[in-house]
Amino acid sequence: MKLLSQLEIGEKAVVKAVNGEGAVRRRLFDMGITPGAEIYLRKKAPLGDPIEISLRGYELTLRKAEAANVEMV
Question: CA 68 to CA 3: how far, in whole Å?
Fold first, then answer.
């Protein structure tokens, strides 16, 4: 199992599952991070937090702690 927070710049993966509880999980779903969505890691900040991803035709910035709730295939 690989987490979204563990992807390298330029890597693509598909969302397998979204973990977390309550507001965090709901927020990820609201942003379009749902099982089956393809994600491309565009950038990482110099210290690795936050990360910028592309999915469903738009760019999104996430904290590493949020990205750790997303399992990838």
Answer: 6
